[in-house]
Specification:
By secondary structure, the chain is an alpha/beta fold. The chain has a domain of about 220 residues: Rossmann fold, CATH 3.40.50.720. The protein is about 35% helix and about 15% strand. A seven-stranded parallel sheet has the order 3-2-1-4-5-6-11, sandwiched between helices. The chain has a two-stranded parallel ribbon with strand order 7-10. It is globular. It binds nicotinamide-adenine-dinucleotide and uridine-5'-diphosphate. The site of uridine-5'-diphosphate has 15 residues, from helix 6 and strand 8. The site of nicotinamide-adenine-dinucleotide has 28 residues, from helix 1 and strand 5.
């Protein structure tokens, strides 16, 4: 198949492109390089089945393809808030463009949605039937509400134009190819620990997240795309929940760091807890995360060491 991966030069996208090439597909990687990097796909450029196009999904594009994975959107709170309007445009205008492309080419389209659609959840763990608790006018809204609108657009194109859709709600995912300046918690803690700088826990560190290694996530996305039974949304994530203080301690230990742990104010609307209920993914996709999270942290530490010229 010829598969379009938007956001393909980003963290998850670059792993997905490689995974799809290994399955024997042709891959068109489309990215505006806002948060992604050519470094992430450098090793794929010589592959005759791989093609890179620098393009912003906010502008329409004509491409022939059989499947579309739509990942184009900054994902780190630091980056998506840096240009909030670009973020909301990617999730609205960009989503419409990609759905239009899917409609014209009859391609199946999978949207990389997020656990952020649940906001600060009042239900725990979060199931797909929960409608969420999201601030519509806050600093995270460009992303949270953007992704909610994107899901709405997916469903409306499906109902009105019979576009073949799949929606996955991704929970915090990490691994190599995350940018050193990404600003998300795993990369911040690792880069700080490796340089023996203070590890910056926001708030008192009691807020929780559940971290999934990237190879598990990519497998889940692929399974969701290639089954005929349901369109989603489906949660993809690792239910192994931990507090940010525990994470800071663990990263410091695994990095052999002398860093102290410091506390600074919690950013506005920062969700207090997050853990996926993955029963649906288990039932429909026969998918559970298998990669040991601790080993995942070690792999990411080794990757960051190289990026920081410490190895
Ligand atoms: P990332 O920032 O590394 O990747 C996003 C990619 O999209 C980058 O390469 C960026 O340059 C590109 N991009 C951004 N706006 C674009 C635009 N308008 N046109 C073309 N390209 C554009 O982040 P990631 O962690 O790899 O996230 C990928 C997708 O998965 C995002 O849609 C994100 O919302 C979703 N997601 C990620 C996580 C996670 O924990 N990593 C969790 C939930 C959802
Ligand atoms: N966080 C932190 N220190 C950092 C970066 C993030 O304590 O240097 C916290 C942040 O406040 C949040 C959690 O870690 O509670 C996860 O943040 P991230 O930006 O990775 O993603 P989110 O899940 O909030 O979208």
């Amino acid at each position: 198949m010829r598969i379009l991966v938007t956001g393909g030069a980003g963290f998850i996208g670059s792993h997905l492109c490689e995974f799809l090439l290994n399955k024997g597909h042709e891959v068109i990687c489309l990215d505006n390089l806002f948060t992604g990097s050519k470094e992430n796909i450098k090793h794929l450029l010589d592959n005759p089945n791989f093609e890179f196009i620098r393009h912003d999904i906010v502008e329409p594009i004509r491409i022939e393809c059989d499947q579309i994975y739509n990942l184009a959107c900054p994902a780190s709170p630091v980056h998506y808030q840096y240009n909030a309007i670009a973020t909301i445009k990617a999730n609205t205008v960009g989503m419409v463009n990609m759905l239009g492309l899917a409609k014209r080419t009859n391609a199946r389209i999978l949207q990389a949605s997020t656990s952020e659609v649940y906001g600060t959840p009042l239900e725990h763990p979060q199931t797909e039937t929960y409608w969420g608790n999201v601030n519509p006018i806050g600093i995270r809204s460009c992303y949270d509400e953007g992704k909610r609108i994107a899901e709405c657009l997916m469903m409306d194109y499906h109902r009105q134009h019979k576009v073949d859709i799949r929606i996955v709600r991704i929970f915090n995912t990490f691994g190599p190819n995350m940018a050193v300046n990404d600003g998300r918690v795993v990369t911040n803690f690792i880069t700080q620990a490796l340089q023996n700088k203070p590890i910056t826990v926001y708030g008192d560190g009691s807020q929780t997240r559940s971290f999934c290694y990237v190879s598990d996530l990519v497998e889940g996305m692929y399974r969701m795309m290639n089954q005929e039974e349901f369109i989603g949304p489906v949660n993809l994530g690792n239910p192994a929940e931990m507090t940010m203080y525990q994470l800071a301690q663990r990263i410091a230990e695994l990095s052999g760091s002398k860093s102290e742990i410091t506390f600074s104010p919690l950013p506005k609307d920062d969700p207090t807890r997050r853990k996926p209920d993955i029963s649906l993914a288990k039932e429909k996709l026969d998918w559970v995360p298998k990669f040991d999270v601790e080993q995942g942290f070690k792999n990411t530490i080794e990757y960051m060491k190289k990026k920081l010229y410490l190895a």
